[in-house]
Amino acid sequence: MNRTYFDCETYSQDEASILPLLPPFDRDNVKVGNYGAEKALEKIKKAEEDHKSNWLAKAALNPVTGRVVVFGWSVDEGHGSIVDPVGGNEVKLLTDAWQILADELRSGGEVVGFNIKSFDLPFMIKRSWILKVCVPPDIRYKYKGRSYWHESIIDLRDEWTFGERYGEGKLEDIARWMGIQPVASESDQLVASIDMQEIQEMAFENAIECLKAKNKIDLHYTKEIAERIL
User: Fold this and answer.
1) CA dihedral defined by 201, 120, 217, 83, rounded to 10 degrees?
2) What is the CATH number of the domain that holds 218?
3) Mean of the pLDDT values across residues 172-177?
4) If I label 156, which of 27, 145, 164, 215 is the partner at 20 to 30 A Cα–Cα?
5) Could you tell me if residue 26 is inside a domain?
């Protein structure tokens, strides 16, 4: 059975473009107790700043405020990646990514990833809707008014947890439990270990390098885990 393994990385859109989407701050929800006017104002101001910063920190995980910047895939004979190095060609990235996945499914192969039915694919589909990119019907089809994933799209997280929604185990945890070692260089491992929130706060050019390294390691883990449990 031929398989294409894939993983995508996301990054927030420009702050100026998404700030108009910031949910309104309700100062009435801030408890100030018996604070004096000056301290109460300070607490409210701090709460408003936290409201904004916490929302921005999660922007990359929301398809309305985030974007796909790296799509990596691996097959038996090699691997590759599509990168949007300047943050302005997401349409082409998504178009090419869908072509890779659809070609595998049309050839009778499997598309495999980790948490792809809960995050990667829904994120890519919603970004495609927003950007008017065609999503191949091979990915998700309708039957009697409901949508279903193609039967050959396999989510390793579902396999590991046996469908339990809150089942334990992140990709790197499962790889560690199985004794799977990363094959990336030490520098790539170091870069990939940087916290995702820190990456989101980096300049775009630096963040891309970190996300490429993380993508490479995650693809290796995905492929190794799949070979054991599928």
Assistant:
1) -70
2) 3.30.420.10
3) 94
4) 145
5) no
Domain that holds residue 75: 3-17+59-229
Report, in angstroms and rounded to the nearest whole number, the Rg of the chain calculated over CA atoms: 20
**Do residues 184 and 216 touch, judged by C-beta distance below 8 A?**
yes
CB 138 within 8 A of CB 100: no
Question: Strand 153-155 relative to strand 110-113: parallel, antiparallel, unpaired?
Answer: parallel
Note the helical H segments in the chain: 15-18, 37-57, 90-106, 121-131, 156-161, 171-177, 186-192, 196-200, 204-229
Alpha-carbon gap, residue 26 to 37, rounded angstroms? 18
Q: Which two tokens stand for residue 225?
A: 């885990």
pTM for the predicted model, two decimal places: 0.89
The count of domains in the chain is 1
In the prediction, which pLDDT does 30 show?
83
